[in-house]
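Job type: complex structure
Entries:
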Amino acid sequence: MLNIIKNWSIKSKLIAILLIVSIFTLVFGGSLSVYIEITSKREEFARLSVTQAKLLAEYSVSPMVFEDKDGATEVLSKAMSLDNLSCVVLLNMNGNVFTSFNLKSPENIIKNLKFDYQFIGKTLHVKQPVIYNDKLYGYIYLVADTTSIDEQLVDYIKKTILFTFLILLIALFITYQLQKIVSVPIYQLAEITKEISVKKDYQMRVEKKGNDEIGVLYDNFNLLMDTIQIQQKIQNEAESDLTEMTKQLMKHNNELQRFAYITSHDLRAPVVNLVNLLNFIEKDDLNEKNKLILDKIDISIQQLNNTLHELIEIVSLKKNLDDAKEIINFETLLHEITTGIEKQIEESKAEIKADFKIKEIFYIKSHINSILLNLLTNAIKYRSSERKPTIFISTELVNNYVCLKVADNGLGIDLNKNKRNVFGLHKRFHYNIEGKGIGLFILKSLVESLDGEVDVESEVGQGSNFIIYLKCEIK
Amino acid sequence: MNHITKNTFKVFLILLSFKSIAQEDVSLLKTVCIERFTRFIDWPEKPNRSSYNLVYLGDYDDPIKQVLEKNFKFMLVKNNKVVVVHCKHVSDLKNKEIDILFISNTFSDKLVEILSYTANKPILTIGDKDNFGTKGVLINFFIQQNKLKFEINEPAVKKSGLNVSFHLYKLARVIK
């Protein structure tokens, strides 16, 4: 019952509660009234009948004293003119019938009544002694028909039910009107709250109409709205500041990129010239000391050249962020990449297996190309000399991400020492193998630039499993 | 009879057919009635009362005399025994304590004298002849439609000082 009511509107709840109370009160009150009416009617009827019996007993004194049956019968016959009496009997002291009027059978006389009177079925039996000067001469016994009071009571019950129903209707009408005092302000508050949440207009307020709990609720609501409005103002100002700051940062970033781009490209030509010029130097003409110096210059220029390449790649990566996305088929892309590094695959005798559960995605092709190429070349580069390199590439859907995995059986990485640095810039774990330590950094940058994530599982001597979570559409 | 108020509801009715009932039974009936009358009549308080005196004024051979004497040996009045005294002459009444005086119908010519003895005294006078009631006897038997009835002389009752219950009046023909 409570579970049903709890989802009702306040209006319905109030009407239901008041009606339930009204119905209970009216039904209880009506029942009590009917009970009191029945009891009082019957008692009144009994009192009247007892009084009649006492009068008859008084009138019957002399006939009983003189044992005058005719006189007694005449007294009884006069009594029969009274309403509701169905039979009257005069009993002698032994309880035997002395004379009677309308008595159908002596068996109709109850020998031992519980009280002066007793209701039996639809009749009332009354017995009163005929006494004179403290001497008992007999009893007057009368039987009254209660049909008339029963009819009156039925009529009363009908009227009570009718009035109860009418009062309930009036109660329903009054309840419907009065519940508005409580429900309308709450309904208005709910409406204005809804309007505020839709329109985001925090300037709206509710108009207080009383000082009751709802009035307090209105006050508190308006206070809350004041607070929200102030917070909104602060937030707007903060957002405005943030936007301005973002603009400034973007401006600085663009300038920095332009600076890096210009610097890297402007430096590239002189470095290339230096490399070329260095090749023209005849090392044989140099003494040992100069040869040593030249070698060091060569190394320095190579380092400068490498650094410049890295710088160009990073700058290129940032530029490519705005490249258009396109549909990429993993099978096709893998084929293109393996073709490009065919020589390395043949030399390493690496076996490449693929299982693409997600066949195509909508992504920036150069990014996926760079990611896959990087992981494949790494897998070949850091292969184990103890076994034939095997690389397994797969795609699947994990928590709305396209999960690209590249697993190898290579040297592996000690993640206990290097877990945090795997994707760091210039981080290398196998110094006996040629590398710049920027591949995984670029890979991570590419993935995160489009809200993806990277992870790695690896065990030294067993191999590595690079897991790339791509945020993209599946085609 | 013009002074007689007839109320059918208040008439004492005893079914009695004189054709089929012996005279002795009528006397018995009258005797019983006298006893029943006393139940509705109160005499003024009398110190040291131990009995009620019923005086029968009439002939010796009147059947009722025997019946009265015989039955009042066993019947009580107000829980007191009854002493039945027989008087043959009116003068016998003089200086006698009388509570109930039954006047035989043979004394009709001496009724005035008899009543002079009982006037304004608490003596229940009972007559047994027509007109006795109107002449001043308190209660008088009479026959009507073969039924024994009685009449009460209300003014005489009031003068006597006796207190007669309305129950008795209800059954009687009342002489106002």
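Summary: The first helix of chain A runs from residue 2 to 5. The mean pLDDT of chain A is 86.
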